[in-house]
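The data are quoted verbatim for completeness:
=====
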Amino acid sequence: MRASIIIPSYNARERLYLNLTALNRQSYERDDVEVIVVDNGSDDNTFEMARNFRLKYPLKVIRIEENKGIAFGRNKGVLSAEGDILIFHDSDMIAMPDYIKLHLEAHREPNVVACGMFWRRIFTYYYENFTAEQLSNFEKLRKLRRLYRNCSYKDKAPLISEEQTKTEDLQNYSFDLEMGFICDLMDIRRQYGNNFEGYYLPWRFFITNNLSAEREKVLGVGMFDTNIVRYGYEDYDLGIRLYKSGCKFTLADHIVSLHQEHPANYRSNDLVENINYICSKYNSIYFIDVVLVCLSDSLNIDKTMMNGIAWDILRIIPKPEYHEILELFLELLQVLRKRFFKPQEEDGKAVYARVNGKKEYYIQKIIRLQRQEWVPYFVPMLSILFKLAINMDFERLVKISQDGKGELL
């Protein structure tokens, strides 16, 4: 089997139906592709609809009685897959006709992770509990493009017909999602190109609504982490491990699939829970970049600074004599993570006491690091962390030590 398309679904029956309908329009005509739908505890007859759907490719439908999170559902699909290439394709996506063909072409070379276009959106159904932002985008399309003029504004009212999904170029109905992190990623694409030359955090593009990777690679790094049950981050988590294992990431933004807009399915504290879990899981100097990305908004670190720090760390990691400085950097990051997201465990005073007892040692190490290595981003960020985490003026202490003026305070 050449490829397995894995589609987890939870109470998205109507959107999944359009998803499968669009797959019947695919230009790829060989029979070495299978589709695996994982009904993740739905109560809207998703299983019955999918089981009875007439698809042009071999179709497996797996029923999970209790929803244990999307990571658990995707893993069920991975374990059932027979394809060499896994194509992750969420239930609320509508693939353009060359979707499968282009994903397979992206794997002509081994060890590739192909990140398809994930920021295009489309309205296929009207939902009464759309967010204010979704309603605003919908009305803009109605007025500016003169689309959806006959909308009844009833819950789950169809906006795109099944026939349109079969015959029309639905990109005419689509729009770009304008969110901070999306705009950030688009700037990165423009600066570093689709092969991420000189960019050291490509796992940030690992969005599993339109993505493919080798099955053996996914199995080799342990699949999705089922401890992540809150919305988001289960895809980043797998992307981190694939990237650190040596996979080559590429932004295949010519592979287009449209995300069907629907009511938000996340809770207000999902972000906090996920950041705490990820930062605790990757509390190692080999994953400082992960913790840094998780805290980037809170620390107001821009994308250039973040990439520069990641590059500096990659050059320091092979030098064991500086691992203590990396441990210090990570420890200060974790102080701030707890302060921002888990204040009941904040340990800044204890860390201050420990660092203060060894500050001359640390300062001499850092001075040596600056002299022997070119780390234009790492040391300035370390200075910022000293100030924010334990209120220690690191730059002043270094200057005093270098000038030999007075005692360190």
The CA atoms of residues 222 and 244 lie 13 Å apart. The domain at 3-120+176-260 is CATH 3.90.550.10 (Spore Coat Polysaccharide Biosynthesis Protein SpsA; Chain A). The chain has two domains: 3-120+176-260, 270-403. The mean pLDDT is 94.
